[in-house]
């Protein structure tokens, strides 16, 4: 609901009827006023409606008004609260202000002065809201990467800002976990397109379902098609369609998608009616689609590859690792209500030397898990459970046992590698498949093969 033209909502919480009514008369011209005579009724009023201002008596028949302040502190948007009392003490004032009251006033008070003070508080909140809104809009335009702004990522950021407004297809290349979808979302924001960005990972859906997800279908197109389905191509009209792992598109779908790119034309499954869309296509792949060994149409490849952006793996941007660690700890602290301050020098050195085959996604899982398990304010090697995992997938040359058949050694390496990916992903097989750079179906096959 748009509240910009509404009066601000004021809740008066006081058990004295005459005093409460005098406040209603004083404020009803400038506020939408509601009243409560105790904690229980105040909580009910606050559940029913979001209030901008609360005038709260500290002494109430059913409890201490500061209890309500504690409730409001945990709410999504705390109102401006003026605590009121006829029995002022330093202790009660400190307690109320500590719990989030904007001011503490002693009865009787000058109502005209109170109205002026509330007007100032509301104006300040309005200004802060506008500043926050501008900050959010600005943050959308800022690069979505935690980076020092130097090294390989500097070129990515500069090139992205140059080509994002150009209405041509973009192919993002990079290893699994480097942030290809984040980059695509930033390009969409900078493009100025009014529609939404619609994303799909082509590797996560069976081939027979992928086509209907992209193009939709009409009622009766096949058994089970009991209603018209909107496809992702249709939903992205006027905006951006992001195809992650585009190399997994079946050949039959590739031919149909070429028509979308060349003429903006597509057909729903089971329909003969031509439909038109205006989409900006961004695709991504963790492999070289131009390789003749891939089953990818050359003509579609050249249409997708209007411009290419290369996202470097984390091992090629080690200068960003300390900043990434700080940002990921901050996110994990918020998620798990922790107050981890940072990592030990040993952890930082270990993280900086490690090659991160799963890239930022692997680092995120490692930090998230460590923060969840940490007992102190700083992450130690014992928290990250990383040394053992790395040793498990290492084969130092001096310890190699060449009496083991080559196929057995490779099977063992694959098992350790998969186990490490599952540990990184918290046993989430979809995330583990992303870390490994394979499809979920392939991962399930290998788990069954190795009896894992």
Task: Describe the SSE topology.
Layout (H helix, E strand, L loop, with lengths): L8 E5 L3 H11 L4 E5 L2 H10 L4 E5 L1 E2 L2 E2 H9 L6 E6 L4 H9 L4 E4 L4 H31 L9 H13 L6 E4 L6 H12 L5 E5 L5 H9 L16 H4 L4 E5 L6 H13 L1 E2 L8 E2 L3 E6 L12 H7 L2 E4 L10 H16 L5 E2 L1 H9 L5 H15 L4 E2 L1 H4 L2 H6 L13 H19 L4 H8 L3 H10 L3
Parallel strand pairs: 1-2, 1-3, 3-6, 6-7, 8-13, 8-14, 9-10, 10-13, 15-16
Antiparallel strand pairs: 4-5, 11-12
Helix pairs in contact: 10-11, 12-14, 17-18, 18-19
How would you portray this structure in words?
- The two termini are 52 Å apart.
- The protein has 3 domains: 9-138, Rossmann fold (3-Layer(aba) Sandwich), CATH 3.40.50.2300; 164-312, P-loop containing nucleotide triphosphate hydrolases (Rossmann fold); 318-449, Helicase, Ruva Protein, domain 3 (Orthogonal Bundle), CATH 1.10.8.
- The chain contains 19 helices and 16 strands.
- The strands form 5 sheets. The chain has a 5-stranded parallel β-sheet, sandwiched between helices. A 5-stranded parallel β-sheet has the order 9-10-13-8-14.
- It has 452 residues and is an alpha/beta fold.
- α12 (321-336) packs across α14 (359-373), α17 (406-424) packs across α18 and α18 packs across α19 (440-449).
- 48% of the residues lie in helices and 13% in strands.
Strand order of the largest sheet: 2-1-3-6-7
Identify the overall geometry.
globular
Strand content: 5-15%
Number of helices: 19
